[in-house]
Amino acid sequence: MARKETAADAANAGRLKQIALTYKMTRKADKKIGLVLAAVGIGTLGVFLAIGFLIGHPVYLGIFGLLIALLATAIVFGRRAERAAFGQMEGQPGAAAAVLDNIGRGWTTTPAVAMNRSQDVVHRAVGKAGIVLVAEGNPNRVKSLLAAEKKKMNRIVADVPVHDLIVGNGEGQVELKKLRTTMLKLPRVLTGPQVTATNDRLRALGDLMSNMPLPKGPMPKGMKLPKGGPRGR
């Protein structure tokens, strides 16, 4: 019993430490985060207390309002922390791969399936929407990478729809913070077994990450591909 309590205490301490760290990181990009959270919490609790006094049940409404205030504060904190994280990641090579890694269940992502010496890169995700190729880099250069990769997909899995997205803030591009939402809105046309079969067929292709010592997630800006390395697939 003592061991279970110790493990639970350690887990709680770890969560509190993670929340504190997230708050500190968010505050660097969002200076008003503290005031906003306080306003949401106090405002929500105040509304329920006022209603409680009006109907003659301030204690019950106060307790209920406290729970709702904590929930509202947590939701606002999560959204602003996510926005701050995207703001810090935006523009960094490999940022799209980091988003794809956290897209959720039902998707299999493979970073850096195609790349050139200018660090323009294409990532691949497979789910019930089919194959989604996500490119980041110079819009003019990544189009050739996408075209080559789509041609390869059509040869190997011609019966699976292939979508292509370019991450950026220009016309026809998808903002980094909207990448996950955009992919989840794609129509689902494959069944679970079809997704598995598609992944099995694509796994034989390999990817640049398995053949090159590249770090996962955002890649250092000064990093160069070795001479003679692949320019794209």
Automatic annotation (TrEMBL):
Region called Disordered, residue ranges: 210-233
Keywords from the UniProt entry: Membrane, Transmembrane, Transmembrane helix
Ranges that cross the membrane: 33-53, 59-78
Compositionally biased region (Low complexity): 219-233
Coiled-coil regions, chain positions: none
Domain of life where this protein originates: Bacteria
One Pfam family of this chain: DUF4191
Protein name: Membrane protein
Source organism of this protein record: Streptomyces canarius
